[in-house]
Amino acid sequence: MDNLLAEEVIRRRLLVDGDGVGDDRRILALIKNYLHFCTNAKGLDLEQRAVGHRRLLSQLHQVGMSLVRTNEMTKINEETKEMFVNLGTSLRSEVEQTKHHIVQYKTLLENATKHRKYAMEYDALAKLIRSQPDRKATLEKKNKLLTELASLKTMEAHLAQKLNSRKQNMTILAGSIERLKELMKNEDNLPLPPLPTLTPNIISININPKEEVEDATISPMDIDETIATTSETTIYSKEMILMDEDLILSPSKKEEGKKSPRAKSDMHEDLSESDGEQGA
Fold it and tell me: 273 to each of 19, 231, 276, how far by Cα in Å?
């Protein structure tokens, strides 16, 4: 491949330049002048021979200088080539080192980014932990709340037991009220005894409708005591009935009772009037 390129270069130079330029031209001119001097030296005198000889020497010196210059240029080119080769090698090694450093720096950058992220998370977590109360204080508060909860549970059990007892008492009271109402209804359904007839010295009282007491002789003082006892018993029974009815009233009835105190006063007036009539 190199031989073909060299032949191609020589062929082009011969076609374009002819004898060539530069060193090649000087060498060809020196050869021509030398051949011309050798062939024509017999017909020349000494002075012409000396001039031709000096011309050939000058051309030879020029060719020698061209050779030295060419050698120096070749040497310089070789040194320059070697320098550039070494420079390319050093540059390639530096590029490889730079690539390796870039990879290392990328790894360091990723690690630094992770460390910064973790540091920010740690700071946020530390702030959150500092915002929360101390563990000792929290445990003390927890124990206090547990103690309060236990006391509240005990109180709840006590209140539940008390409520059950109140419910039982209320049930018993309601049953007693119902029985008392039935008893009152039965007493209301019973026929009233006849009024006693007063005589100047003798009074007859029928205590039981079925059993008649004949010829009962009672003094006026005994009659007054009997009437007073009967009226007191009736008033006490009616007051007990009213108290029981107030206890079992529903909230709506209680409100009605609060709204109409006049009705209760009328009821008490009726009771007092009936007691007055009985006393009379």
Answer: 172, 11, 5
Which segments in the chain show pLDDT lower than 70? 1-5, 12-24, 41, 191-280
Give the pairing type, strands 203-204 and 197-198: antiparallel
Which of 243, 238, 239, 230 is closest to 280 using CA atoms? Answer: 230
Which pTM does this prediction carry?
0.34
Q: Which two tokens stand for residue 74?
A: 């070749």
Per-residue pLDDT tens over the stretch 39-90: 776 777 778 778 888 888 888 888 888 888 888 888 999 999 999 999 999 9
Residues in the chain: 280
Query: For residue 204, what are the β-bridge partners?
Result: 197
Place of tokens 């007051």: 239
Which residues have a Cβ under 8 Å from the Cβ of 197 and sit 6 or more positions away?
Answer: 203, 204
Cα separation, 178 vs 226, in Å, equals 30
Per residue in 152-175, is it b (16+ CB within 10 Å) or e — as a string?
Answer: eeeeeeeeeeeeeeeeeeeeeeee
Query: Hey, how many other C-beta atoms are within 10 angstroms of the C-beta on 26?
Result: 19
Q: How far apart are CA 32 and CA 63, in angstroms?
A: 14
CA 204, chain centre distance (Å): 97
Question: Token digits for 147?
Answer: 């103690």
What does the DSSP assignment read for 100-150?
A: HHHHHHHHHHHHHHHHHHHHHHHHHHHHHHHHSPPHHHHHHHHHHHHHHHH
Name 198's bridge partners.
203
